[in-house]
Amino acid sequence: MSTDEFRRNRDNFCYRHPDRQSFVLCQRCLRTICPECQTQAAVGVICPECLKEQQKARTPAQEKAQRRWGRSSTRTMSPADSRPLVTYWIIGITVVVYLTQLIPGSPVQQWLALNSAYLIPSLPTGFQPWRLFTVLLVHSSIWHVGLNMLALWMIGRSLEPLLGRSRFLALYLISGLGGSVGVALLAPGQWVVGASGAIFGLFGALLVIGRHIGANVTSIAILIGINFAFPFVQGLMAGSMAAVQISWQAHLGGLIAGAAAGFIFARTRSVRQRRLQIILLAGLTLLLLALLVIPAIIYV
Questions:
Q1: CA separation, residue 261 to residues 164, 202, 267, 274 (Å)
Q2: 53-75 burial string, b = 16+ CB within 10 Å, else e?
Q3: Measured distance CA(129)–CA(43) in Å, rounded
Q4: What pairs with residue 45 in β-bridges?
Q5: Which of 23, 38, 70, 250 is a Cys-bridge partner for 80, taking CB atoms 3.0 to 4.6 Å apart?
Q6: pLDDT value for 2
Q7: What are phi and psi of 14, to 5 degrees?
Q8: Cβ–Cβ under 8 Å, residues 300 and 124
Q9: Looking at domain 85-298, what is its CATH homologous superfamily?
């Protein structure tokens, strides 16, 4: 479903396939192209028309080099693969790590889970900053990992082709970092596991990007609201928030970080803004890391 504003804006659809939504631009003409029309170039992707123009503009020396080394245009510029491979890799690695947790006496969860005490160098626990990200790989039960990976599979199939693999991976890691920072700020000293923060970040990014391009994001907003409210409802029914086994702090931190990254992606779509996009994402990451100074000052 989409709004009239979304349908009227042709920049949101492939210029060769007007019924296909896309978020990727040809690096030469800057027109929107769907995965089928994308051809991987030296930097970014180009559309079929720009590919033909590029082939026509080859110099005699370039044609001679291609004949000499036996390279055809189809080899040097293979069509872009639109499969969400990063999503599949994350799911595969996470499932493998969970299986290692099932080995009797396995220390994997103890090594990779997050506790903010390991983020403060002055404490005797030791400084182990990698836990900010490794927490995404360990889970408490088969239902925990199953539901998280199902959500990742459902979102990743749409969001990864829309953003591209490198942007999607950056979004996932920044969202996961945001979730870990949220736990460190709002639940110091608590042990947490799971990729829920990163998953909520993907929801947040999808909400912001969809809203920016004029898509109907009502269902996404409702889904986020239901999932975010569930821990509080569970706490009210149990009579105490201490009985809740869901880290709403990670959800909140991941949602905010993912929405911020999604806003950066939505506002820097042009190829000319690629450097600005990288700078803004790096700035967001540094800001999240800087927030970890707060628990080191307050809770020590």
A1: 14, 9, 10, 14
A2: eeeeeeeeeeeeeeeeeeeeeee
A3: 33
A4: 40
A5: 38
A6: 54
A7: -60, 135
A8: no
A9: Rhomboid-like (1.20.1540.10)
Determine the average pLDDT of the residues in 265-282: 90
Residue partners of 140: CB distance under 8 A and separation at least 6: 193, 194, 245
Q: Counting Cβ atoms within 10 Å, is residue 245 exposed (0-12), middle (13-18) or buried (19+)?
A: exposed
Q: What is the CA radius of gyration of the chain?
A: 22
Q: Is the pLDDT of residue 278 over 60?
A: yes
Phi and psi, residue 97, nearest 5°: -65, -40
Q: What is the pLDDT of residues 147-187, one digit of tens each?
A: 999 999 989 988 898 888 999 999 999 999 999 999 999 98
Q: How far apart are the C-alpha atoms of 78 and 87, rounded to whole Å?
A: 22
**If you average pLDDT over residues 101-122, what whole number do you get?**
92
pLDDT 10s digits, 50-96: 888 877 766 665 565 455 444 444 433 333 556 889 999 999 999 99
Q: In which residue ranges of the chain is CATH 1.20.1540.10 found?
A: 85-298
User: Other CB atoms closer than 10 Å to residue 275's CB: what's the count?
Assistant: 9
In a 3-state reduction of DSSP, which class is residue 13?
Answer: strand
C-alpha to C-alpha distance for 267 and 262, rounded to whole angstroms:
9
User: Can you say how many angstroms the Cα of residue 40 is from the centroid of all Cα atoms in its chain?
Assistant: 21
pTM over cut 0.85:
no
Six-digit token string for 224: 């986020």
Contacts of 143 (CB under 8 A, 6+ apart): none
45 phi and psi angles, rounded to 5 deg: -125, 160
With tokens 């479903």, the residue in question is 1
